[in-house]
Write a structure and sequence with these properties.
It is a single chain. The chain is built from 8 helices and 9 strands. By secondary structure, it is of the alpha/beta class. The protein has one domain: NAD(P)-binding Rossmann-like Domain (Rossmann fold, 3-Layer(aba) Sandwich). It has a 7-stranded parallel β-sheet, with helices on both faces. The chain has a two-stranded parallel ribbon with strand order 7-8. Helix 1 crosses helix 8 and helix 3 runs parallel beside helix 4. The longest helix has 29 residues. The chain binds NADPH dihydro-nicotinamide-adenine-dinucleotide phosphate and the ligand O=CCS(=O)(=O)O. The site of ligand L7H2UBRR has 5 residues, from loops. Its EC number is 1.1.1.313. InterPro entries: KR_dom, NAD(P)-bd_dom_sf, Sc_DH/Rdtase_CS, SDR_fam.
């Protein structure tokens, strides 16, 4: 039975991915900080497949290394790592943002992702052919927009780190993908606005955002491709989202 390690399984893409991989019979190693949600997911899915939950903050490199290096034999070999835990904060312009929010994004989206990857690499290398690292990037890593500042830059890191990993893993059989979604309706905007439910509802109202299940389906697709195929980057948007024109600063008329 293949096994998948999903960071940030307590919500959004991570939770939907856990449900999708369980449906296909994969063993699940699920992480997140919110213990109650991990327990609820374990209760929901452990009738279907073996489930191991690890209450983990990806920013804590010692905790990450200890947990991943100590995975029980029944959850090995590790076939897929989904580096999904992440967040955006502070949608305001850069000049109005608290430094702490920038640090939190860097610590989670960059350092956290690197911590987990470093700890899981020996296991994925042992699995070799057919193993995958699926990193959650974002359209924000490629396309600038106002208020994107450190969030977009952290996702640009995810893209380049994924490509560079591909170079080093050549010959090992381990695949790496930067999966870069656009607007998707999860708790993402609630977190970004620090709990402003009205702002979150307003963003998704009157359009058709991607849903967590759409991304879970892509993750499952990527993890189960024939083992000689590596999709380097997969950018995905709702058909109701597109780019916009350059903004111009003009003198008053
Ligand atoms: N929704 C969107 O529009 C898009 C999202 N993304 C990216 O997809 C990923 C998932 O986002 P999404 O599902 O939308 O958002 P959610 O807010 O719904 O889920 C985020 C998950 O990340 C976990 N997480 C956050 N910080 C930490 C941490 N320090 N340690 C461990 N886990 C953490 C949360 O768990 P807990 O709080 O329990 O720790 C939660 O399970 C993120 O990397 C995001 O940047 C990319 C493109 C579009
Ligand atoms: O990563 C999230 C999508 S967006 O908010 O940057 O469009």
């Amino acid at each position: 039975m293949p096994s998948v390690l999903i960071t940030g399984a307590t919500s959004g893409f991570g939770k939907a991915a856990a449900q999708r991989f369980a449906k296909a019979g994969w063993s699940l190693i699920l992480t997140g900080r919110r213990v109650e949600r991990l327990k609820a997911l374990e209760e929901e899915l452990s009738g279907q497949v073996p489930v191991l939950t690890l209450a983990l903050d990806v920013r804590d490199s010692d905790a990450v290394t200890t947990a991943i290096s100590g995975l029980p034999e029944e959850f090995l070999p590790l076939t897929c790592l989904i580096n999904n835990a992440g967040l955006a904060l502070a949608p305001e312009p850069a000049q109005k943002v608290a430094l702490e929010d920038w640090h939190t994004m860097i610590d989670t989206n960059i350092t956290g992702l690197v911590n987990v990857t470093h700890a899981a690499l020996p296991l994925l290398l042992k699995t070799g052919k057919g193993a995958s690292i699926l990193n959650l990037g974002s359209v924000a890593g490629q396309w600038p927009y106002p208020g994107g500042h450190v969030y977009g830059a952290s996702k640009a890191f995810v893209q380049q780190f994924s490509y560079n990993l591909r170079c080093d893993l050549l010959g090992t059989g381990v695949r790496v993908t930067d999966l870069a979604p656009g607007m998707a309706e999860t708790e993402f905007t609630l977190v970004r606005t620090k709990g402003d439910q009205a702002a979150s509802d307003a963003l998704y109202r009157g359009t058709t955002p991607l849903q967590a299940e759409d991304i879970a389906e892509q993750l499952y697709y990527l993890a189960t491709l024939p083992d000689h195929i590596n999709i380097n980057r997969l950018e995905i948007m709702t058909v109701r989202q597109a780019w916009s024109a350059f903004a111009i600063d003009r003198d008053p008329a």
